[in-house]
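Figure caption, in words: inputs first, then the predicted bound structure.
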Amino acid sequence: MTSSIVILTGAGISAESGIQTFRGADGLWEGHRVEDVATPEGFARDPELVQRFYNERRRHLLSGIEANAGHLALARLEEEFQGEVLLVTQNIDNLHERAGSKNIIHMHGELLKARCLDCDEEMLVENDLGIESECLRCDSQGRLRPDIVWFGEMPYQMPRIETALGNADVFLSIGTSGLVYPAAGFGQLARYAGARTIEANLEETAGSSSFDRCVRGKAGEVLPGLVDELLEMGS
Ligand code: OAD
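Bound structure (2'-O-acetyl adenosine-5-diphosphoribose present):
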């Protein structure tokens, strides 16, 4: 009997919605230097460049991008599964929420949130952020940063994620290259703790050999069937 499922998603699940992945020939990191746009040091050096980078991502997300069949399948799993489903995403888009998933951890932060460097208040943002943007709580100017976990920073809610991985019966990793830790180690953690581990990805990844089962294909095409299987196992 399966009573707890933990899912990890990466950029691959949003690829069919038209959001660029990070690695690979036409990935985001081909056109941008990670250390310039995704580190606290890069932000301290050139906040305008970093704000511009995330402003572009935010505008794109709000320009008519829709959740796809992969996101919808995971929302259906949470809705219909009898036990617990925790969705941990590395993605900063809001497509899981838009598809209907509720129990979500955005371990790398959220594009539609900003955080004040002075008072630590989190706030929703739908417009561009700039070096003149004001905090809605403490009124500081130029102290808002995108609420994104950058390289060298601690992902959000790690204790809760580790507890869930330790109790999982099934761990499902979808559309992630398995190159960025700590997320890249979740499969092994869950497996050592006794979970059955499944990877769904277009291609083999750095972590494929540590999964019990690998399903190859586009997330939007393979997830509806995989979710049916998980629902049967749980019933
Ligand atoms: P990557 O760009 O590293 O990997 C995307 C993965 O998705 C690859 O393994 C592809 O094979 C797979 N993929 C592409 N299209 C797919 C599809 N339609 N269906 C299924 N799989 C598909 O993205 P992430 O692994 O998410 O962090 O990257 C992890 C972190 O690195 C990101 O959260 C980001 C980045 O730097 C930060 O910015 C902090």
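The first strand starts at residue 4 and ends at 9.
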